[in-house]
Amino acid sequence: MKIKKLIAKVLLLGVGFIPSQLLAQTSLPLHENLISFNSSQGETLLIESNARQDYIPLSLQFETQENLAFCGVASIVMVLNALSIPAPKATEWVMYHRFTQDNVFDNPKTEAVITKETVSRQGMTLQELGGLLKSYPVDVEVYHGDEVSLEEFRQEIINNLKQANDFVLVNYLRSAIGQERGGHISPIAAYNKESDRFLILDVSRYKYPPVWVKAEDLWKGTNTIDSVSQKTRGFILVTSQ
Amino acid sequence: MKIKKLIAKVLLLGVGFIPSQLLAQTSLPLHENLISFNSSQGETLLIESNARQDYIPLSLQFETQENLAFCGVASIVMVLNALSIPAPKATEWVMYHRFTQDNVFDNPKTEAVITKETVSRQGMTLQELGGLLKSYPVDVEVYHGDEVSLEEFRQEIINNLKQANDFVLVNYLRSAIGQERGGHISPIAAYNKESDRFLILDVSRYKYPPVWVKAEDLWKGTNTIDSVSQKTRGFILVTSQ
Ligand SMILES: [Ca+2]
Ligand SMILES: [Ca+2]
Ligand SMILES: [Ca+2]
Ligand SMILES: [Ca+2]
């Protein structure tokens, strides 16, 4: 019987079909300082938020970063689609124009900032994130973590989250907010005043759900040094022109 | 000057880089019988819904069908991920397990239902949608449009939308609800009683936003003949085992 199973397995391998083992979907456990958006408490924080103008437009464009280095690329694509910026053709949809994590690089101006290959290897810095966004018709304001106080950080982002047609991307060190582990980029969708927390729509959906994070923890996460740029991380405000 | 531009253009072509023209992102215009979810009215309908248990889990897994024929595939992936069903490895994310529109076919049981190649050519019927779902550990109830009254249609779906850990996929004729044009599949995320409308999280995000559609229009859209199966379309309830 065991031998029959072995033969069956060999035959299966022989025809080139190796079924991938089905394993539990992550996500990694959440630190006690974070609140999952996918919980009744997480939902309540959104309902009671008075700075959630960006939530629906961003959630409609939510997508997963296509590889471990593409958090910035997925974040750019979500924001450009949410702003309905004129887009390249996407061959997979024939006649429809829309940004993808592939065609967003089909623009001569992006090459001058950073190539797709370099991003695939090392991700991108805050400056490169701003530079890629500027290769499309949007206004971009870049703030490094060491340039703003907690109060300025909170207020700039809240102002944006209260109005339509602009969005916030944040670049932070995950370990500063209790996550695994390095630098990361995602859009911010809402702010809850009572708990003083921001909602991050984390684009690494294979790894973590969106979380509500304390404003102070996120601010500290932006005031960390990116070893590639030797500058602090930070956040970017993106506005339709 | 014109010649210089022409030469520059030829050189650009010469090095093999043809920038795609940036064009307005769709979406197609919405019929007056539909309400876009991405509007203040659409948001209000969700806030006032008392059958929206499935909205957040589905919205967190929202993704775009990867080609014009993959509406059913994207819908299956959203639901399997929302239910956290054990998943194959996704090579792009190295060690993380999660369903994608590619790896959902990496299962010997799916081949017996329909191949990826056939789906790419002609999409899938309601029966095939149910069959693909059954190749994973979920309970599946298939309802054809001609088997249920409007009242039964409405009530079965509302019951599901009021509880967690199960989801609804609907297979309808777009033209019956005022859209372009053939058969389509997407998850339903919520119901609003006062307006008697369902919220469809349309997976063809390059084409239409999510819409609130009248229950009667959607029911009529399911009571239409799929030319491949020669049976009516319908809806499917998917439950975690
Ligand atoms: Ca400002
Ligand atoms: Ca905003
Ligand atoms: Ca039932
Ligand atoms: Ca449900």
UniProtKB/TrEMBL annotation, chains A, B:
<keyword id="KW-0104">Cadmium</keyword>
<feature type="signal peptide">
    <location>
        <begin position="1"/>
        <end position="24"/>
    </location>
</feature>
<keyword id="KW-0808">Transferase</keyword>
<keyword id="KW-0479">Metal-binding</keyword>
<dbReference type="GO" id="GO:0010038">
    <property type="term" value="P:response to metal ion"/>
</dbReference>
<keyword id="KW-0732">Signal</keyword>
<dbReference type="InterPro" id="IPR038765">
    <property type="entry name" value="Papain-like_cys_pep_sf"/>
</dbReference>
<dbReference type="GO" id="GO:0046872">
    <property type="term" value="F:metal ion binding"/>
</dbReference>
<dbReference type="InterPro" id="IPR007719">
    <property type="entry name" value="PCS_N"/>
</dbReference>
<dbReference type="InterPro" id="IPR038156">
    <property type="entry name" value="PCS_N_sf"/>
</dbReference>
<dbReference type="GO" id="GO:0046938">
    <property type="term" value="P:phytochelatin biosynthetic process"/>
</dbReference>
<feature type="domain" description="Peptidase C83">
    <location>
        <begin position="18"/>
        <end position="241"/>
    </location>
</feature>
<dbReference type="InterPro" id="IPR040409">
    <property type="entry name" value="PCS-like"/>
</dbReference>
<dbReference type="Pfam" id="PF05023">
    <property type="entry name" value="Phytochelatin"/>
</dbReference>
<dbReference type="GO" id="GO:0016756">
    <property type="term" value="F:glutathione gamma-glutamylcysteinyltransferase activity"/>
</dbReference>
<protein>
    <recommendedName>
        <fullName>glutathione gamma-glutamylcysteinyltransferase</fullName>
        <ecNumber>2.3.2.15</ecNumber>
    </recommendedName>
</protein>
